[in-house]
C-alpha cells in the first residue's frame, strides 16, 4: 500500500487532471521502448483497507457529478425518497429485461408507454425552470396545429390528386403565390369535406411530425423530412393573426408542462396579411413581445420569454453582414426581448461558423451568441470545429454540443468559461445521431460537471410534452442510476442561471421558480402517503 | 483581446484541466444566484488575430490526440500521403451519402462491401502488432470450423428432427455424455449424407456465428445467442487433438492478417480423449505452449503468444479462491507463458469484481490482472463500478472499458497509471452496446490520449478478419478524420508496449515488428506508383 498511497495522496480534492496531463504529452515513439515496473496494485493491503479506499474513490467519482453538491432540505429529502423509490423500480425492470427499458428504445415506439410511467408523472408536474433551446414554429402540439386548420379563409395546396399536402395559405381568394412544387389550391373546408374530416386529421397528424419514421437511412434523410415539416407549416403559421396565437398557445402548453420561461429561436420570417400584404420583421418581433406581455399578465407565476434571432446558416458571408445589422436594429427596438443571435439549419450541410467570422466579430458585445455547434457525429469535420469557433466567439451557451465530448480541450473551456450546453435528448435521437439514450454523450458532461441544461428543440415534431420527455430521458437514461432530486434541481436552477435573465429579472425568476418548487415538493410527499 | 489572453496564456502546454477543475467543485446552490459578467469573447480583436488564435486552439486540440506526436520518417510520410488520399475519398463519399458509409452501419450488412474498400486492403497488409484481447475458442474462421467437422469419429447431437445442432463429440462409439437438452446422436458423416453436404455447410456457417442477427431485442438476448455458440463448439474443440490444431490454425490466420503476437484468454477447460478420458487443465496449457513453440519455429517473424487464465465470473467467491490457486500452479509450471488472470462471461449477469476482492488480493504480484470491466451501458450500476475495482486491484489493462468515459476520474487514473484499454469495436457493435462506430466511446479516449489497443475479441463469431476489420472501424469510424499513419503506428506500438512482453523479449518484439513495418511502408509507396 505504501507504494501506492504517495501517488494517490496529492490528488485529494484537486490536481488529479493535471497530473494525468503529464502523460498526455508523452511521445509514443520515445516511450515505446521503456518498461514501467513499479507496483500499482493494492495486493499487499488487507481487504478491509482496500474496501475503505475503494469506497472513497467511488464516492469521489460520484461527488464530481452534476448537482451532487447540492444540499437538500428535510422536505426535499423526503420527496427524494419517493422519487428514488419509483426510479429504482423502473431501472430494476429494465435490468431484468433491457428490451422493456424505454431509454434503450426509440421514442416513437415508447411514447404511449412513457406517459404511464410513474417517474414521468412526477417529472411532468415538476417545475423544471426554463426551456433555453426551442424553435418557434415547432413548439405546439399536433392537436393545436390541426385546430388551426379549421380557421376561416385557409386554403390547402395538394399534389398527387390530393394525396400530398404541399402548402397552406390564408386568403380571401384562391392563392397565387409560388409553391415548392406544382399543386392545386382548394379551400381547406372543401378538401376536408371531399376527403372526410377524420382522414384529413389522421393525414395531417402524420405530416406535422416525424412519425412514423424511427429509422431513416441516414441523418441527412431525417433532416430532409424534418425541414419539410417547417416548410409545410410556413403558410399556416406565418399568417399575422395566427403567428401570435401560436406563440401564446405554446407558452400555455409549456407552462402546463412545468416550464416557466422560454428562450425561443426564430428565423423571424416576415408575416403576411389576408390580402397578401407583407409585414416587416420588426412586426414579427413586436407581435411576439405583445403576446408574451399578455401571457405574463394573466399568468403571474410565469417568468417570461426572450427571443434569439436565428436565421439560416446556409448562406454567403455577405448575408451574415445583413443578419448582424438586423440583429442590432431589432435589439435597439426590443432591448429586453430580442437579446441574442444564432444560425440554424443542418450544420453538416450549412456553412461552418469559421466562414462567418468577419461579420460575426462586428456584433456588439451586448447581443449574445447562442450558437448551435457540434450537432454531428463526424469527428474532425469542419462542422465539428464549429465548437471551437462558438467558444472563441464568446458564445454564452452551445446548442446541442453533441460532439463536445470528443474535444476534451473545448469541453474544459466550457467548464472554465461557464458555457452551458443545451442538451436536447429526443431531438438527437429522432434526427439520428444516436439511438440508445444510455450512450448519449451528455452522460459524460454530467459525470464531469460540465454545465448543461435540458431542452426540447422541436417538441411539436416528435409529439412529446414541451419538456417532460426530455427530462425523463435525461434522468432515467442519460444520468447515472444514482442521480436524484439534486440532479433534477440543478437542471432547473441551471436553466435560470444560464438564461439571458440577469440581475433583478433573474432574482425574480428564481423566486417564482422557488415558489412552485416548494409546492411541488409538498405535493410529492403528500401524494405518496 | 487583452481580457481574454491572460486567461488563455497559462494553459500553454499544461494546466488546462487543472484550471477547469476549480469549476468542477462549484456548489450549484451557492452560485445559482451569482452573475458572471466579464467579457469572454474576442469581438474586439481583428479577424486576422482571431484566425491565428483559432488555428492555435484547433491545433492544440489535435495535438493531444493519440499518436499525434509521433514523427514520421520521409518514407513514412510518403506512405502516409497514399493512405490519407484513399481515406479522404472514402470519407468524402460518406459525407455525400451517410447511408453508404460503412462505419455508420452494422457489420453484418457491410462485411462484403468492406473487403473491397481500398483502405481495408491497406490495413489488412499493415503489420498491426499484437492482439491483446481475444478468447481462445472464438479465433478461427468459420471455414476452418467447418473443415474440423469433417474429421473422423465426430458425432453430432440434434433436436427438432435434425434441425437444431445441440452438441458435438469425438467418439469411437455413440456418445453417452449429458447434453444441455435432449437430442439424438448420429455420426457426422451420416448426418451430412442425410441432409446434403451443402445444406449442412450453410447451416453450420450460420450456427457458428452471430449472423444474421444484427438486431437483437436487447444486449441480454445477444449474449444468450453468443454464449450458445461457445457451448455448441465445446465438444468440437475440447477434443485434445483438435485443441492444439485449432490454436495453431488461429496463429496462422492471425499471422496472415498482419498480427505477430497474441495474448489469448482461456477458461482452460479440461480436454477429452477419444475414449472419453479427461486430461488435466495443466495439459490444456501444455498443448498450447507446445503448439506456440512449433508455430514460432516455422515462422521466424512471429513474436509469440501468451496466455491469460480467464475462468467464468458467475461464481461464488469461494470458487475464485480455487481460481487463484490454479493460476499460481500454472504460472509456476509455465512462468513465461501463463502470465495473467481475468474473469469472463457477461459482466451484467455475472458478479462484480467487488465480490471477489478477498481472494483476488491474494494473487501474487507477478501474475498480472487483465480485467474485463465496464462492458455495459448501464451508467452507475455495480457493473459499471468494476472499472474502479479493476484499477485499484492493479489491472495492467482493461478489457473493453466501454463505460470508462463516463468516469472521468477512472479515465484519468488509466492515463496516470498507464493502463491501456483493450477496445474491441466490432464486438461492442454485435453485442449491442452501440450501432454507429462514430459514437464509440473510444473516440474520446483517442482525443484525450488515454492509452488504447485495438482488439477483436471473438472474430470467429462475427466472421471478420482476425484484426483488420477492427482496425478499419477504429481508423475510419472512431478516430477523427485527421487521424493518419501516426495514429496507426501508435496503435501497433501500443500493442507491444502494453503486452505482457517485457525486457529483452519486448525489445525483440519491437524489432520483429519494425522489420515488417519497414517492408510494408516500402510496399505502400511502391504499389501506389
UniProtKB/TrEMBL annotation, chains A, B:
<dbReference type="GO" id="GO:0046872">
    <property type="term" value="F:metal ion binding"/>
</dbReference>
<dbReference type="GO" id="GO:0046103">
    <property type="term" value="P:inosine biosynthetic process"/>
</dbReference>
<dbReference type="GO" id="GO:0005615">
    <property type="term" value="C:extracellular space"/>
</dbReference>
<dbReference type="GO" id="GO:0006154">
    <property type="term" value="P:adenosine catabolic process"/>
</dbReference>
<dbReference type="InterPro" id="IPR032466">
    <property type="entry name" value="Metal_Hydrolase"/>
</dbReference>
<dbReference type="GO" id="GO:0004000">
    <property type="term" value="F:adenosine deaminase activity"/>
</dbReference>
<protein>
    <recommendedName>
        <fullName>Adenosine deaminase</fullName>
        <ecNumber>3.5.4.4</ecNumber>
    </recommendedName>
</protein>
<feature type="domain" description="Adenosine deaminase">
    <location>
        <begin position="214"/>
        <end position="512"/>
    </location>
</feature>
<keyword id="KW-0732">Signal</keyword>
<dbReference type="Pfam" id="PF00962">
    <property type="entry name" value="A_deaminase"/>
</dbReference>
<dbReference type="InterPro" id="IPR006330">
    <property type="entry name" value="Ado/ade_deaminase"/>
</dbReference>
<dbReference type="InterPro" id="IPR013659">
    <property type="entry name" value="A_deaminase_N"/>
</dbReference>
<feature type="domain" description="Adenosine/AMP deaminase N-terminal">
    <location>
        <begin position="37"/>
        <end position="123"/>
    </location>
</feature>
<dbReference type="InterPro" id="IPR001365">
    <property type="entry name" value="A_deaminase_dom"/>
</dbReference>
<dbReference type="Pfam" id="PF08451">
    <property type="entry name" value="A_deaminase_N"/>
</dbReference>
<keyword id="KW-0479">Metal-binding</keyword>
<comment type="similarity">
    <text>Belongs to the metallo-dependent hydrolases superfamily. Adenosine and AMP deaminases family. ADGF subfamily.</text>
</comment>
<keyword id="KW-0378">Hydrolase</keyword>
<keyword id="KW-0964">Secreted</keyword>
<dbReference type="InterPro" id="IPR006331">
    <property type="entry name" value="ADGF"/>
</dbReference>
Amino acid at each position: 500500500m505504501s507504494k501506492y498511497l504517495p501517488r494517490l495522496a496529492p490528488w485529494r480534492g484537486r490536481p488529479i487532471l493535471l497530473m494525468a496531463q503529464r502523460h498526455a504529452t508523452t511521445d509514443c515513439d520515445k516511450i515505446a521502448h521503456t518498461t514501467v515496473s513499479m507496483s500499482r496494485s493494492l495486493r499487499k493491503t488487507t481487504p478491509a483497507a482496500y474496501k475503505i479506499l475503494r469506497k472513497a474513490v467511488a464516492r469521489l467519482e460520484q461527488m464530481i457529478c452534476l448537482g451532487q453538491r447540492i444540499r437538500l432540505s428535510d422536505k426535499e429529502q423526503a420527496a427524494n425518497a419517493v422519487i428514488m423509490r419509483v426510479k429504482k423500480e423502473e431501472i430494476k425492470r429494465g435490468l431484468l429485461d433491457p428490451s422493456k427499458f424505454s431509454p434503450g428504445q426509440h421514442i416513437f415506439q415508447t411514447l404511449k408507454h412513457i406517459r404511464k410511467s410513474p417517474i414521468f408523472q412526477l417529472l411532468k408536474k415538476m417545475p423544471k425552470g426554463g426551456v433555453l433551446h426551442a424553435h418557434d414554429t415547432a413548439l405546439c402540439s399536433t392537436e393545436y396545429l390541426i385546430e388551426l386548420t379549421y380557421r376561416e379563409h385557409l386554403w390547402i395546396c395538394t399534389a398527387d390528386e390530393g394525396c400530398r399536402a404541399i402548402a397552406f395559405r390564408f386568403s380571401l381568394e384562391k392563392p397565387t403565390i409560388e409553391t415548392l412544387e406544382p399543386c392545386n389550391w382548394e379551400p381547406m373546408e372543401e378538401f376536408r369535406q371531399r376527403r372526410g374530416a377524420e382522414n384529413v386529421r389522421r393525414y395531417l397528424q402524420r405530416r406535422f411530425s416525424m412519425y412514423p419514421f424511427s429509422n431513416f437511412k441516414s441523418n441527412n434523410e431525417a433532416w430532409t423530412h424534418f425541414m419539410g415539416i417547417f416548410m409545410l407549416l410556413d403558410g399556416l403559421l406565418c399568417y399575422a393573426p395566427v403567428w401570435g396565437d401560436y406563440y401564446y398557445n405554446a407558452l400555455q402548453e409549456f407552462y402546463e408542462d412545468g416550464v416557466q420561461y422560454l428562450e425561443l429561436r426564430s428565423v423571424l420570417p416576415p408575416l403576411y396579411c389576408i390580402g397578401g400584404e407583407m409585414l416587416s420583421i420588426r412586426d414579427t418581433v413586436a407581435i411576439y413581445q405583445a403576446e408574451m406581455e399578455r401571457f405574463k399578465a394573466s399568468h403571474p407565476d410565469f417568468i417570461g420569454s426572450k427571443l434569439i434571432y436565428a436565421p439560416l446558416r446556409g448562406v454567403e458571408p455577405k448575408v451574415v453582414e445583413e443578419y448582424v445589422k438586423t440583429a442590432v436594429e431589432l435589439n435597439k427596438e426590443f432591448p429586453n426581448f430580442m437579446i441574442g443571435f444564432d444560425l440554424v439549419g443542418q450544420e453538416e450541410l450549412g456553412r461552418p461558423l469559421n466562414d462567418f467570422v468577419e461579420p460575426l466579430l462586428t456584433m456588439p458585445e451586448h447581443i449574445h451568441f447562442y450558437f448551435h455547434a457540434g450537432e454531428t457525429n463526424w469527428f474532425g469535420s469542419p462542422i465539428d470545429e464549429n465548437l471551437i469557433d462558438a467558444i472563441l466567439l464568446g458564445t454564452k451557451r452551445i446548442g446541442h454540443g453533441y460532439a463536445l465530448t470528443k474535444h476534451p480541450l473545448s469541453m474544459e473551456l466550457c467548464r472554465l468559461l461557464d458555457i452551458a450546453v443545451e442538451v436536447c435528448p429526443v431531438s438527437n435521437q429522432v434526427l439520428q445521431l444516436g439511438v440508445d439514450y444510455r450512450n448519449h454523450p451528455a452522460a459524460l458532461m454530467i459525470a464531469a460537471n460540465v454545465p448543461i441544461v435540458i431542452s426540447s428543440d422541436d417538441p411539436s415534431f416528435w409529439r412529446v410534452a414541451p419538456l417532460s420527455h426530455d427530462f425523463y430521458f435525461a434522468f432515467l437514461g442519460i444520468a447515472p442510476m444514482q442521480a436524484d432530486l439534486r440532479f433534477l434541481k440543478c437542471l432547473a436552477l441551471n436553466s435560470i442561471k444560464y438564461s439571458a435573465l440577469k440581475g433583478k429579472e433573474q432574482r425574480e425568476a428564481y423566486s417564482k421558480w422557488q415558489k412552485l418548487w416548494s409546492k411541488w415538493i409538498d405535493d410529492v410527499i403528500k401524494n405518496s402517503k
